[in-house]
Design goal:
about 5% helix; five-stranded antiparallel beta sheet; 15 strands; about 300 residues; mainly beta
Length: about 300
């Protein structure tokens, strides 16, 4: 759409500045890593379902943009910076550093009743993003999943319920764990083969992956310390952001990803500092000092 293209043309150099209470954040983003390298301004995670049938839309602008940040917090006592630069000026805490930024958006008329979302980036070549839950498409409410993995050695792979891929899901919100196995039963082309990000199309034999999706299997396991989850967060609703259904998130989970083809491992990678979210009816109560609640 026009809005997607307009945003895409500007994302290579983008500055975001905003404040929430005593916290001010200044971000500088560059070097977009699009979801689909073949058609970066049009193709996204939703696949081929017509827009007018989807009550909730999901677009990923960049999987791992280069990012520099400055975070200023007023009226605090200085403590450890956790490995980033920290300065204090009259009870003002300033944290600055570099990292990778995942840049996405949701919009629509409703949010699902229960969902899981996760995102992880090891570098500008290796990323994972997944989401799923109880979604309504037209007159039907069903469990829908999207799992995408980008690897510099294996290729770019997207698994979706609408592509008739098979998903086996297990989650334990109290323990902070989520596991999903996605298997492609039907033949179709992978999103991109090895080397396309650099503009060089290598064959599956030369690159060790990519090509036909038939027999591809992706195994993902995420684990976050139960105490690392946030207090309930508001989510978009017809009346604005609301705690019902709300969600809880951790930003310190470990993602383990394994890609196989007909049972033979193509690659395995661990990605630290992954984001993991339990939303709506799949939330739980963590018995600690944080103000968390069930829906």
């Amino acid at each position: 759409t026009q809005s997607r293209s307009s945003a895409a043309s500007d994302v290579y150099k983008r500055q975001l500045s905003f404040s929430v209470g005593p916290v001010s954040i200044d971000l500088h983003l560059s070097h977009r890593v699009p979801y689909d390298v073949n058609d970066p301004d049009v193709r996204g995670p939703e696949g081929y379902i017509p827009d007018d049938l989807l009550p909730t839309h999901y677009w990923i602008q960049s999987l791992a943009s280069a990012c520099t940040y400055n975070i200023t917090v007023d009226n605090v006592t200085a403590g450890s910076g956790g490995g980033v630069a920290v300065t204090t000026q009259e009870q003002q805490l300033v944290l600055s550093g570099r990292g990778l930024a995942h840049f996405e958006a949701n919009w629509g008329s409703t949010f699902p009743s229960g969902w899981v979302w996760a995102q992880a980036a090891l570098d500008t070549s290796t990323q994972l993003v997944l989401t799923g839950g109880n979604f309504t498409i037209g007159p039907i409410t069903s469990e829908q999943w999207i799992v995408s993995f980008r690897s510099p050695t294996a290729g770019h792979f997207d698994f979706r319920t609408i592509d008739l891929d098979v998903f086996d899901v297990a989650m334990d919100c109290l323990r902070g764990t989520f596991a999903i196995n996605a298997t492609a039963l039907l033949a179709r082309e992978a999103t991109a083969e090895v080397g396309q990000r650099k503009g060089v199309r290598e064959s599956a034999a030369e690159g060790g992956g990519g090509g036909d999706m038939e027999g591809m299997e992706l195994r993902v396991f995420l684990e976050a310390p139960p105490g690392s989850f946030s207090a309930p967060l508001g989510v978009p609703s017809v009346g604005g952001f609301s705690m019902r259904p709300g969600s809880i998130e951790s930003y310190t989970s470990l993602a383990t990803v394994e890609l196989l083809k007909f049972g033979e491992r193509l690659t395995r990678v661990e990605i630290p500092m992954a984001a993991l979210e339990f939303g709506g009816t799949v939330q739980c109560h963590h018995d600690d000092d944080r103000d968390s609640s069930t829906v």
